[in-house]
Amino acid sequence: MTFQPRMRNQIEGFSVLGGLRRRSWNGIAAELWDVECANYAGGYYVAGDPRVFILLDQRGPGNAAVRQRPGEIGRPQGANLSPISYIPAEMDLWVHIKDVEYVRHLDLHFDADTVARRLGEDLDPRCLKEPKLAFDDRRVMALASLIAGELDNPDPLHDLYGDGLALALLIDVMKLAKAEPRRRGQLAPWQLKRATEFIDTHCLRSIRLEELAQITGLSQSHFSHSFKASTGMAPHDWQMNARLEMAKRLLKSGEQPLTEIAAETGFSDHAHFSRVFRKHVGVAPSQWKKSQFA
After folding, report:
1. Integer CA distances (angstroms), 96 to 69, 254, 261, in order
2. Cβ–Cβ contacts within 10 Å for residue 280, how many?
3. pLDDT (tens digit, 0 to 9) for every residue of the chain, 294 residues total?
4. Is residue 179 within 8 Å of residue 222, measured between CB atoms?
5. Residue 28 phi/psi, 5° resolution?
6. Strands (E), the chain
7. CATH number for the domain running over 7-173
8. Kind and range of the H or E element at 187?
9. Per-residue b or e along 15-40, where b marks 16 or more CB atoms closer than 10 Å to that residue's CB
């Protein structure tokens, strides 16, 4: 499925020259703009997905200024002055341009989940949410120039060419280091995170192995083996631990009868709860509760 960037803006003083050139790859969309500017041009933009803005060329003595909110002192940005900005999803970017006649810029929008799956690891949420406005990087600019050339090419090369350049640029901008190698048979970090978060969230109901395999993109047997290799326990045992941790919190927080705690944590009755608790924790629930207040 082609990735379609989501963008809203309220701008003035810009006229697009020659039409927009756009290419979409696997979770990444690249857009090349040639824009004529009035003496003053500006406004704000907000995108539904993270994006990288790169100013490739401009004419005129002035520069742009970019800021996160109106009233701030803008950071100067020009084709030869800090031409790159990373803008997180749903962040307003205010742009003020004066005494610039023309700009050419490249926008790279990307779907964080798709890119994470391609890289085999989750993107750090802190990194995704932290804007990086108006900076320079010669390697990023070289990649951006090659991507722009491919968008301008009337006979584009194989999709893997532009896709590879765009992915390399995102890796550089986000400063994604090589992941630590994992032992053979283990889940990738993003797969383990998705599986454990899903189990923890839905631990009170019956979770089918098919569901866990589906969200990690593996067969059921492959997932089951790799989950145990990664955690040291089967998915069912992880789920049981999650329910017992919930039970421990309830035991510590109040005077609920054990029958109520058993029902709230998904056990069929008090006897079943006590039997499972003793098996996994080593003592009966009532004894464990007393030990917490001793």
Report:
1. 12, 58, 59
2. 12
3. 577 888 898 999 999 999 999 999 999 999 999 999 998 899 989 999 999 999 999 999 998 899 988 778 888 988 888 999 999 999 999 999 999 999 999 999 999 888 888 887 667 777 888 899 999 999 999 999 999 999 999 998 999 999 999 999 999 998 765 555 555 578 888 889 999 999 999 998 899 999 999 998 888 888 999 999 999 999 999 999 999 999 988 888 877 888 888 888 888 888 888 888 888 888 888 888 888 776
4. no
5. -135, 135
6. 7-16, 21-24, 28-47, 51-59, 64-67, 75-77, 84-87, 93-98, 102-110, 132-135
7. 2.60.120.10
8. none
9. eeeeeebebbbbbbbbbbbbbebeee
Q: What residue spans define the domains of the chain?
A: 7-173, 189-292
DSSP bridge partners of 52: 86, 108
What CA dihedral angle connects 273, 275, 277 and 280, to 10 degrees? -140
The bridge status of strand 28-47 relative to strand 102-110 is antiparallel
| Among candidate residues 117, 97, 292, 108, the one with its CA nearest the CA of residue 194 | 117
**What does the block give as tokens for 39?**
């003496």
Query: Beta-carbon neighbour count of residue 212 at 10 Å?
Result: 24
Measured distance CA(39)–CA(100) in Å, rounded: 7
- DSSP, res 155: S
Contact between residue 225 and residue 268 where contact means Cβ atoms under 8 Å apart = no
CB 93 within 8 A of CB 68: yes
Q: Which two tokens stand for residue 49?
A: 């997905």
What's the fold here for domain 189-292?
Answer: Arc Repressor Mutant, subunit A (1.10.10)
Q: What does pTM read for this prediction?
A: 0.63
